[in-house]
Each structure stands twice: as structure tokens, then as C-alpha cells.
TrEMBL record:
Name of protein: Prenylcysteine lyase domain-containing protein
Domain Prenylcysteine lyase: from-to ranges: 138-461
UniProt KW Membrane keyword: no
Signal peptide start-end: 1-17
Cofactor(s) for this UniProt protein: FAD
A molecular function (GO) term: prenylcysteine oxidase activity
Organism classification: Eukaryota, Viridiplantae, Streptophyta, Embryophyta, Tracheophyta
Native species: Oryza brachyantha
Alphabetical UniProt keywords: FAD, Flavoprotein, Glycoprotein, Oxidoreductase, Signal
InterPro entries cross-referenced by the UniProt entry: FAD/NAD-bd_sf (IPR036188), Prenylcys_lyase (IPR010795), Prenylcysteine_Oxase1 (IPR017046)
SUPFAM superfamilies xrefs: FAD/NAD(P)-binding domain
UniProt record similarity statement: Belongs to the prenylcysteine oxidase family.
Superkingdom, natural source: Eukaryota
Length: 482
């Protein structure tokens, strides 16, 4: 026993000061590693270590980017769609040689109010329809939407484009983009901060949208993308609305490959199934203790996971703003929807994407078809705020061959005005990427926040940075196809 006690600290005190340690292997942690390795070759002689506590079932990097297998097919279970103007993620995919698959732009959407479909877009033409027929369908669909929502559609688009234009500033070169040491400063610089102070609904009313568009179309989108109503804060709402635009894509084979690929490209050491239990500041470095009993000395530490439901002990203690995570239950069902549940006589009359209004009695936020094996056999994804029990699922579905449930601490529960935790948790070398998630949670926002944290960390460690950086937004060739 004595021998064990003496040996353990010697054997398990693994790394040397000079290492930079990152807690979390999701897109925020992996892009922090990537940007750190990209921006400097001089990491004080140390290495990049990334810790991932993820349990046995999913032994890989990615965090909230993960696939689920239903009937032999892999589907995105968490973060699934990428906006065409998400320049970091697009660049990551190109750099890693990952192929993109585009999302169809012509979903047949039905808006469910708990007793009927109050609005439906037009049924898309059958697969293999001619180019002309598809174009005609798109035109008729636009007219159909305009008839119901009028100019509010144009105003909504203007609101989203304005947010996107401001967001593009985060891709400016180093010369015209400062390093930020707080989220507030970062958002104020691009002109996005005010959007976090008021609800989406308030912003849209001021932008001139009518109440029907907000209670139907806008609410459907915020419920699908953030599991919340139009009373979420304005920036998260604008990001969510951008997620309904055309040109969305995903990585073929799973978005998690972005995280895995970035860690490889950064030459980071990935400690899989090794959770960090405590982070202690020891005068001139941090000591990270893992659930395997190992200790790591780190010159700087980056926390790349939301701290709201994670139990890491910090000494000295840190102070973060209270924040609730919104849980989204993703239920994957192979089977067939029950038309009677929707007051219909045939399953072929049920829209392919069911969005919902903010009615407390509706037990789900959305239902979408992921794959059609035949007219009688499909795989669906259901999002809900609470777990869907078997008897409820047996009402909604007439047949279920396979059911998989995932309970995600998915994104922050957005409440305006948002309050942000510090980016530098202790005034020294302890950084927190996921405080930015209180502005908006997405793969790209994770990457943008990570890029700033990487620059901030290198600047504070006084390591040299490249003098120029071009990520595309200020490159006219790239801007042309945005
Ligand atoms: C259902 C759902 C749908 C979504 N849809 C989209 C979408 O369509 N498009 C989009 O852009 N975004 C979407 N998002 C949001 C997006 O997935 C997240 O914003 C993003 O993946 C967060 O990445 P992250 O690296 O910041 O955090 P995470 O992915 O959560 O990574 C943090 C990692 O840290 C690990 N960890 C935690 N504690 C410890 C510890 N103590 N020690 C070691 N490791 C630890 C966790 O296991 C996790 O792997 C969705 C999210 C969900 C859940």
C-alpha cells in the first residue's frame, strides 16, 4: 500500500508544464486545438492535450456532433446542418477532404397546432422530376408562402441577412479584427450585442413582421433548431432562422469527423474516455486531475464544454453566470406515423416535416422523415422537450420496429438579456470557450469563439502569431460564392 502511495504521484504525473490542455473534444475543443497549432509553431516546447470524458458507447471525438445508427443507416443525432456562410466549418471540411452532402431545399412542411395543420407548403415533385418542374414548384411554393405571410417573409430575410453580414466580420484578417477578452466586447465590435438584450419576438415586431408569421413560421423554426419559442434572445433567434435558409449541408458520413480530423491536423494528443475532475492553479501552471487518477501539468487550460451540467472542481473557485441548458430529446423511430393522430385518413397526407406552434399540449417540437424505405416503412427523427414514453409513441406511430432515444443537454435556454460568463475564468491562463454559446449555439459559433480564444491565449502567453490571416470573407473570390 505504502509503495503504491509513493509510486502513484511519480508515475501518473504525466505531462510537463508547457502543455496546453483542452477539456472537451467537440467542435469548440477541436477547433481551439486546430487554431492553436495553425497560428504558432512554438508551443513553449509542450504539446496539445485534449480530454474527452465521453463514455464507452461513443468512443470518439465530436461531443454534440454524433451519429446514431438505425436499421444499419447512420443519421446525425445532434448538430446536423451547416449554413453555406459558415466559413470556418466549410474550410475545415475542405482542408480535411471531407465530402459535403446537401440538404434538400424543398421539404414539405406542415405546421401543426395540436388539432390540425394550419398551413402546409406544397408537396414537392417526385424524385427524378425534371429541372423545369422543380423550378416551377419552387416558384409556386414561394407564392404560396407569400400569400399567407406576405411581406413579413421579406422582412424576416432582411433581419437574418443583417445578422449574417455582421457575423462575417469575424472572418476578417488579423489586421482589422482585434483579439477579444470578453464575449460582450466581441459581440459589441460586430454590432451583434444588442440582439442578445431583447427577445427574438421583440426584434421581429420592430422589424415589421406580423404576429401570424411569428407565431407560426418563426416559432416552428425556433422550436426545431433550439427547442424553444420565439421568446428566445434575438441573436440565438436570428441564427436559428438562418438555419432555415437554402444551401444547408452536412458532412457525408457524419459531422463528428470535423472534430476528429481537426484534432489529427493539430497533432493533438486525444485522451479518450478520460474526464477531467478538477483543475487546480499551482502558482505558474494548472494541474488537471482525471477520472483515471492521472495528473497533468498544463501551462494554459481551455475549457471547451458548457460548465452548466459538468462537475469540475476548480481551485481557487471560479465564478460563472448561472445558465440553464435546454434539454432536447431526440427520438429516432423506424416505423410508420399514424395518420389518425393527425386527423388524416392516409399516411401519404402527412407532411414530411411537421413543425409545431407553441401550444403546451403538443408533446413534440418536430417530426421529420430521415429515410423512406417504402411508403410503409420510414425512419423518423422526433424532437421534444420531454422524454416521449412508449404509450405516447404508440399513439403517434401506427408501427414501430426500432426506437432510439437520446437526451441532449442541447444548448442554453435562451433568455434576454443574456448574461455572459468570462472568457478568461481566473484572470490568468484558464479560458472558457462555451461562454459564447449564450449568444448562439452552433458548430460555427463554437469555431468562431475557439478562434478568438486561441488568439487570446497565444497573445497572453506572448507567443508569436502570424502577421496576416485570411479566412475568406475578405477574399473577393470567396465572397462571390457566399
Ligand atoms: C439535437 C441538437 C441539434 C443541433 N443542431 C445543430 C445544427 O443543425 N447545426 C449546428 O450548427 N449546431 C447544432 N446544434 C448545436 C451544436 O451541436 C453545438 O453547438 C456544438 O456541437 C457544440 O460543440 P462544443 O464543442 O462547444 O460542445 P460539445 O460538443 O458538447 O463538446 C464538449 C465535450 O466535452 C466533453 N466533456 C464534458 N465534460 C468533460 C470533462 N470533465 N472532461 C473531459 N471531457 C468533458 C463532453 O463529453 C463533450 O464531448 C445542435 C445540438 C443538438 C444537441
Amino acid at each position: 500500500m505504502l509503495r503504491r502511495l509513493l509510486l502513484v504521484p511519480l508515475l501518473l504525473h504525466a505531462a510537463a508544464a508547457g502543455d496546453i490542455c483542452i477539456v472537451g473534444s467537440g467542435i469548440s475543443g477541436s477547433s481551439t486545438a486546430f487554431f492553436l497549432s495553425n497560428y504558432t509553431t512554438v508551443l513553449s516546447g509542450g504539446q496539445l492535450r485534449v480530454f474527452e470524458r465521453r463514455a464507452k458507447r461513443r468512443r470518439r471525438a465530436g461531443g454534440r456532433l454524433a451519429t446514431v445508427t438505425v436499421a444499419g443507416d447512420d443519421f446525425e443525432a445532434g448538430g446536423s446542418i451547416i449554413h453555406p456562410r459558415n466559413l470556418h466549418v466549410r474550410r475545415f471540411a475542405d482542408l480535411l477532404g471531407l465530402a459535403a452532402k446537401t440538404n434538400g431545399d424543398d421539404d414539405w412542411l406542415g405546421i401543426w397546432d395540436g388539432s390540425r395543420f394550419v398551413f402546409q407548403t406544397l408537396r414537392p415533385p417526385p424524385p427524378g422530376a425534371s429541372w423545369l418542374r422543380r423550378k416551377l414548384h419552387a416558384l409556386l411554393n414561394t407564392l404560396h408562402l407569400l400569400k399567407r405571410y406576405g411581406l413579413s417573409l421579406v422582412k424576416m430575410d432582411r433581419f437574418v441577412q443583417d445578422m449574417l453580414q455582421r457575423f462575417l466580420l469575424y472572418y476578417n484578417g488579423f489586421e482589422s479584427r482585434p483579439v477579444f477578452d470578453s464575449v460582450e466586447e466581441m459581440l459589441k465590435w460586430s454590432g451583434l450585442y444588442d440582439l442578445t438584450r431583447r427577445t427574438l419576438e421583440e426584434e421581429l415586431v420592430d422589424a415589421g413582421l406580423n404576429s401570424q408569421t411569428i407565431s407560426e413560421l418563426v416559432t416552428v423554426i425556433t422550436r426545431i433548431n433550439y427547442g424553444q419559442s420565439a421568446s428566445i434572445s434575438g441573436l440565438a433567434g436570428a441564427v436559428s432562422l438562418a438555419g432555415s435558409e437554402s444551401g444547408l449541408w452536412a458532412v457525408k458520413g457524419g459531422n463528428w469527423q470535423l472534430a476528429a480530423g481537426l484534432l489529427k491536423a493539430a497533432n493533438a494528443t486525444l485522451h479518450l474516455q478520460e474526464g477531467i475532475d478538477s483543475i487546480h492553479y499551482a502558482g505558474d501552471h494548472y494541474v488537471l486531475k482525471s477520472n483515471k487518477g492521472h495528473e497533468y501539468d498544463c501551462e494554459a487550460t481551455v475549457v471547451a464544454t458548457p460548465l452548466d451540467e459538468v462537475n469540475i472542481t476548480f481551485s481557487p473557485a471560479i465564478s460563472i453566470s448561472p445558465r440553464k441548458m435546454q434539454h432536447t430529446h431526440a427520438t429516432f423511430v423506424r416505423g410508420l406515423l399514424n395518420p389518425k393522430y393527425f386527423g388524416l385518413s392516409s399516411v401519404s397526407d402527412i407532411p414530411e416535416l411537421i413543425g409545431t406552434m407553441e401550444v403546451p399540449e403538443i408533446p413534440f417540437s418536430s417530426i421529420s422523415i430521415l429515410k423512406k424505405y417504402s411508403e410503409q416503412d420510414m425512419t423518423y427523427k422526433v424532437f421534444s422537450r420531454k422524454k416521449l414514453n412508449d404509450s405516447l409513441l404508440d399513439d403517434i406511430f401506427s408501427r414501430r420496429k426500432e426506437t432510439i432515444r437520446i437526451n441532449w443537454p442541447a444548448y442554453p435556454h435562451y433568455e434576454a438579456p443574456e448574461v455572459f460568463s468570462p472568457l478568461i475564468l481566473d484572470g490568468k491562463q484558464l479560458y472558457y470557450v462555451n461562454t459564447f454559446e449564450s449568444a448562439a449555439s452552433a458548430m460555427e459559433t463554437g469555431a468562431v469563439a475557439a478562434e478568438n480564444v486561441a488568439r487570446l491565449l497565444l497573445a497572453r502567453l506572448r507567443l508569436p502569431l502570424p502577421s496576416r490571416l485570411h479566412l475568406g470573407a475578405d477574399d473577393p473570390d470567396q465572397r462571390a460564392d457566399l
